[in-house]
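for the recovery benchmark. tokens below, seq after
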């Protein structure tokens, strides 16, 4: 007989900080739902057969935090800001907003407007349709206050050929509620961080997820 978890609160805590692991056990996604709030909180879950996490991923790392405007675009803002900094470029506030919206609309184009390209992002589609229908998602992503999360990172890492690592504050990782530095909880597009025939390796963009669905940039 399988051992039951000691408490539901422990499970919920693992989900909250992004350490819970979900294994896809069916060949097709669960039936979509349409009763999800547009501002519902998203959590991280690795999707796919490989659920092993390297011990190195539990070690706190030190970075500087670059704060990002929390206007619903924060994940997209942090990403365009990070990609620009990796090229030694500085974006004006207007450019940052414009580029963030361009990323969001690029996702809409490949997932909602292109039957040809949509199948290339199966993991993102699974993550989306666990919570809501694709039709409902496509209606929401057109709005400038759309909140980005794991589904969008799955798409953008591939679309931009960009390695992305998401961190949480170390104190959120420890049961004691204290600690310094940042703990990586998810990685996307890792292969683009390696040199290949398709192009040179790219430096990862490091995002800080710090609750309330807000992202900042780590450098």
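predicted aa per position
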């Amino acid at each position: 007989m399988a051992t039951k978890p000691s408490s539901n609160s422990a499970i919920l805590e693992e989900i909250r900080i992004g350490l819970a692991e979900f294994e896809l056990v069916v060949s097709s996604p669960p039936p979509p739902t349409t009763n999800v709030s547009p501002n519902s909180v998203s959590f991280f879950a690795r999707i796919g057969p490989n659920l092993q996490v390297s011990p190195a991923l539990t070690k706190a790392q030190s970075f500087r935090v670059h704060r990002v405007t929390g206007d619903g675009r924060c994940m997209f803002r942090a990403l365009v800001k990070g990609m620009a900094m990796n090229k030694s470029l500085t974006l004006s506030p207007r450019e940052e907003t414009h580029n963030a919206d361009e990323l969001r609309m690029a996702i809409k184009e490949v997932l909602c407007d292109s039957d040809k390209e949509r199948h290339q992002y199966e993991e993102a589609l699974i993550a989306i349709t666990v919570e809501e229908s694709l039709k409902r998602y496509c209606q929401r992503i057109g709005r400038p206050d759309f909140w980005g999360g794991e589904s969008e990172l799955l798409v953008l890492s591939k679309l931009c050929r960009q390695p992305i690592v998401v961190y949480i504050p170390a104190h959120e990782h420890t049961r004691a509620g204290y600690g310094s530095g940042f703990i990586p909880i998810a990685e996307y597009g890792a292969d683009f961080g390696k040199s290949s025939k398709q192009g040179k390796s790219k430096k990862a963009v490091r995002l800080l997820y710090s609750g309330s669905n807000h992202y900042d940039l780590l450098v």
